[in-house]
Amino acid sequence: MVPAQETGTSEPGASLVEIFASAQGEGPEVGRSTVFVRFGGCDLRCRWCDSPGTWRTVPGCRIETRAGSGDFEDRPNPMSVAEIAEICAGLAATRSTWISLTGGEPLLQPAVVAALATRLRQAGFRTYLETHGLHAEALESCVAQIDLVSMDWKLASEVRWAPGQAGCSDPETEFHDAHARFLRIASRESEVYVKVVLTPSTREAEFEAMLDRIAAISPTIPLVLQPVTPCGGVDARPEASRLLGWLGRAEARLSDVRLIPQTHPVYGVL
Ligand code: SF4
């Protein structure tokens, strides 16, 4: 966990990479106006990660100076929660604009997530937490302030812990168990959907085990199947026949399943 850094107030300081305005490129809120607050630091290494610049904390955060301009200025970390909330309000087109807390992994800084989401809610904004969905205790400490949890379900055969993180001898069971714990809390305390990234090497048994776990918690939890955008160590999408097969199998177990690719690469925005 990234240690909370003090900023001279009672609120913890945040270690961020960037803040910018764009449109949501994934999941059921795709296409909606969104300000992204990208946290620094991640304890996973997904094969397809499109944000390796967030894996480690950095000394400074880049801030888009005007929504959609693509012009940025740098500010030093740690940033105060009040400063971040003010930047979000300045970049948001309207109060209906989502504020996405993303990464990296925001739940490595749960005190910042809680304090920032509280301030944003007081200012009339809705927050959207994008997380790898493995840190249930951290979620529990801040979920009451979050309006929508976007929880990835990582398939252990395609993901590993970052160097220095403790793993175990059975990562597949470890990941499924940790995700199930996380989803129970998220579905009890907030609105949540699950997203799984599917690649040509996705294993059928692992996919089925994920469906078992979600259905056992609630068959009405929305599930988004996201074909991988080739990136990093993955150079192809799954075949259409496999995607449609996964869709049918998921729909047989869950009542709200959608197949949605990432859209932001289509129109070339962040
Ligand atoms: S959890 Fe997200 S930021 Fe971390 S390695 Fe995976 S895709 Fe990248």
Number of domains: 1
Uncertain stretches of 5 or more adjacent residues: none
Task: List the ions, cofactors and other small molecules found in this model.
Answer: iron/sulfur cluster
Q: Mean of residue pLDDT?
A: 94
Under CATH, the homologous superfamily reads Aldolase class I
Largest sheet: 10 strands, mixed
Keywords:
270 residues; alpha/beta; TIM Barrel; two-stranded antiparallel ribbon; 7 helices; 14 strands; 29% helix; globular; binds iron/sulfur cluster
Architecture overview:
- This protein has 270 residues and is α/β, with parallel strands linked by helices.
- The chain has a single domain, classed as Aldolase class I (TIM Barrel, Alpha-Beta Barrel).
- The chain is built from 7 helices and 14 strands.
- A 10-stranded mixed sheet has the order 7-6-3-4-8-9-10-12-13-14, with helices on one face.
- Strand 9, helix 3 (136-140) and strand 10 form a beta-alpha-beta unit.
- The longest helix has 19 residues, at 171-189.
- It is globular and about 50 Å long.
- The chain starts with a strand and ends with a helix.
- The model has no long low-confidence stretch (mean pLDDT 94).
- Bound molecules: iron/sulfur cluster.
- Iron/sulfur cluster (SF4) binds at residues 42, 44-46, 49, 51, 54, 103-105, 132.
